[in-house]
Amino acid sequence: MQPYPPLGSLYAASVTREQGYSVALFDAMLAESEDEWAAALDRHQPRFAVLFEDNFNYLSKMCLMRMREAAFAMIGMAHQRGITVLLCGADATDHAKQYLEQGASYVIRGEGEQTLVDLLGSLTGRASKPVADISGIAFLDEAGNLVETLPRPALRNLDSLPFPAWDLVDRERYRTIWMARHGYYSVNMVTTRGCPYSCNWCAKPIWGQRYNVRSPENVVAELKLIRETLAPDHIWFADDIFGLKPGWVQHFADLLEAEGIKIPFKSLNRADLLLQADTIPALKRAGADTIWIGAESGSQKILDAMDKGTQVEDIYETTVRLKAAGIRVGFFLQFGYLGETREDIAKTIQMVRDLLPDDIGISVSYPLPGTKFYERVKSELGGKTNWQDSDDLAMLYHGPYSTDFYRQLHTVIHKEYRARKTLKRLSGGTLRPWRPADVRQFGAMVYHTVTLPAARAKLNALDH
């Protein structure tokens, strides 16, 4: 229950409205089922239904089967009503024919805003360019063969884009959910598109290796607008890497201080980049509350095999510096990569023990089309090539250990981590087991501590 509006759709809505089109938003994040989409189609009766995937959400890159099935159902509902369906997204880019065969008319491949505008212009007769001459699309010809036009270059000047169509969002519903569940209201933004690094398991069907960044001035202008219209308590910068451009964070912090803006935020950063110059102090000045690091592993052997380009020592030093600056730290951890051993796993667990980050997210290696990792293991993929949901944790290839092993490893690490976290609070005097608010956390610590030996024994039994 940490919902964020679909930024991709909001950008597409802004760009199309700028061209004079009437736009309504169906926010799938808040929908209970695909039936709400059918009701929205009947209510608005659009000429075009555009499924514009939020490519700033990492779950979109994972191409979960639940998401694909929902998209297929929504395509069918629109197609049955005689509505032209257009799609844009990572999974549709990789598997265009599957979506077209479900009833979509066109798939927008890669970055979508300008291609969507060109396509709508051609389909409505506002522009004279034939559809077949538009870069960045896929469609089926009369014989049912897939046609893919030339790729479209990524947009370099991100400041030229209008701000997302925040007025289309049910702001009060989002605020109500956040306040009820967490006691604060968070809103998402992006300052960049793409990532120039070459982690060999990371899919990049939208921007490839290209990396473009908004100016600090442009981001601050949007922050001012969001502060005035949405009044959030917190910002999530959903960039693949926040503040990668040298000097960007420092300039951003200066502008925010000059404007008197300081909204706490979380972002994803690279450990090695955080060690450069005064980056961490600048992040603190800008309002950084939590920094997530793609730590992945505590084994240098695994980091090198991934082409991660970082050192385990970077993770240690960065964590120490962030905590000293009063910034919370989160670790993304990945298990199951090629060649992983129990020794490698133990090094990652020890890193978590040593550094005790404020939060952790655990996954297993996930082969996605277009990556070197996928090419190495595709001959081992069976009938299941995608997870059903984000907590699936299934090994899709013949990894070092079984799916059951990694699911149990997930349980073991979380039990130990959460017990240690609570014990630290208890020893530091910030957790009082007699205080009503802390009773549940204290009880969970006891439960995890008592059940941890059995969980470890079960893990060891699965080590084969």
Explained architecture:
There is one protein chain. With 464 residues, the chain is an alpha/beta fold. It folds into two domains: 7-148, Rossmann fold; 170-400, Aldolase class I (TIM Barrel, Alpha-Beta Barrel), CATH 3.20.20. The chain contains 18 helices and 13 strands. The strands form three sheets. The protein has a six-stranded parallel β-sheet with strand order 6-9-10-11-12-13. A five-stranded mixed β-sheet has the order 1-2-3-4-5. It is globular. The protein starts with 6 loop residues before the first helix and ends with a helix. The model has no long low-confidence stretch (mean pLDDT 93).
CATH architecture type of the largest domain? Alpha-Beta Barrel
Most strands sheet? 6 strands, parallel
Rg, please?
23 Å
CATH topology of the largest domain: TIM Barrel
**What is the CATH H-level superfamily of the largest domain?**
Aldolase class I
How are the strands of the largest sheet arranged?
6-9-10-11-12-13
Any descriptors?
464 residues; alpha/beta; TIM Barrel; 2 domains; 6-stranded parallel β-sheet; 5-stranded mixed β-sheet; 18 helices
What's the short version?
The protein has 18 helices and 13 strands.
Compile the SSE list and pairings.
Elements lengths: L6 H12 L16 H10 L3 E5 L5 H5 L2 H16 L3 E5 L1 H5 L1 H6 L4 E3 L4 H12 L12 E4 L5 E3 L22 H12 L3 E4 L2 E3 L16 E3 L2 H14 L4 E4 L10 H12 L5 E5 L1 H4 L4 H8 L1 E9 L3 H6 L6 H13 L3 E8 L6 H14 L3 E6 L7 H6 L25 H26 L7 H26 L3
Parallel strand pairs: 1-2, 2-3, 6-9, 9-10, 10-11, 11-12, 12-13
Antiparallel strand pairs: 3-4, 4-5, 7-8
